[in-house]
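User: Working on a comparison across species. This one is ATP-dependent DNA helicase from Heracleum sosnowskyi. Can you predict its structure so I can line it up against the others?
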Amino acid sequence: MKKFKCTKHFPKKYQAQTTFDQSGFPIYRRHHIWTPRKRGKQIGRLLYTHHSQGELWYLRLLLTKIRGPTSWDALKRINGVQYKTFKDACRSYGLLDDDNEWHEVLSECCKSGFPSQIRQLFVHIIVNCQVTDLLHLWNLHWKHMVDDIILRQRNVSESPQTILNDKQLEFYALAEIDKLLRSIGKSLKQYSQLPLPPMSYMQAGSNNLVIDETSYNMAEMAAEFDKLFQKCNAEQLDVFNAVLRSVDKNEGQSKEEIESLKKFSEWVLRIGNGQIATPRDGLFDYEEDDIVIPAQFCDPQLTNDVENMIMWTYPKFLDNYKSPQYISERAILTPTNQIVAHLNSAIVETIPGESFSYFSVDRAEDFGA
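Assistant: Here's the predicted structure for ATP-dependent DNA helicase from Heracleum sosnowskyi:
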């Protein structure tokens, strides 16, 4: 060994026959002489990759065609044009076929297949076949995959008037595709060409609250907005623009507050869906419909009574009770009108001054007749 290079023609001693050493271990025969490659530099072996591995597969394809690349960007540079992905470079290099056969298969299935079958076929194609333009394939065929989704959402919401626009239907269809992919150990995130729906659609399932909040006609809402927006005065426009700027800049709440509100919202949704069971820990004598509020949503420094709840919800009440904004920003949710009356009485009693009772009018006298 000189200068970290082997000076022999073979790295191990030549051995004509297999023998055994003193410890009984075999010393295998070595007939062939190892010699370095005499000319040129090249990759001797590339690991196998499946086309479902995405960019890794396209990278391997380029390595087998382009000689002497000096960097990843060099592999993605075809005829002087720099491409963003290895797939785009492969397409420009002419290494990819068109997707006509996949379009024909899906079109044939759309003529007689159920929406669920079309979704299953689509997943089979993108997982097991080589699709060049996945987004184009999706855009041409996804509308045939949603007929059952419309009926399902109407049945869940118990409202035949439930309306879903194209964007909502596409999101629900993508969520169904993600479910099928996850059943075989994959997910929609692995297919970057396909749009990723919001998490509310991925987790919606049969959540009535989500369905109710998304079941509206966007065209009608847009028309209503245009109508009301034109009637805004200067002060209202200032408020409107300030709110939009705050939303765009994600101002107003810290990440901790947003995360806390998110957890609380999810807990409230679970209550609404009947997914919160009555505890059976034996510590208290719970009623059948009792719900235990998690400690993270409670203030351990306050005792559990009505007065503290009012003080926490309406801080500095006597200084602000005349402010409409202060009152409108706060509320205490109660299950029955009886508790509402009790809370109202408790709050009103703290207001100084004489109280008056105003009764409703059954009929009006005709004066001046």
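For your comparison, note: Residues 255-272 form the longest helix (18 residues).

User: Helpful, thanks.
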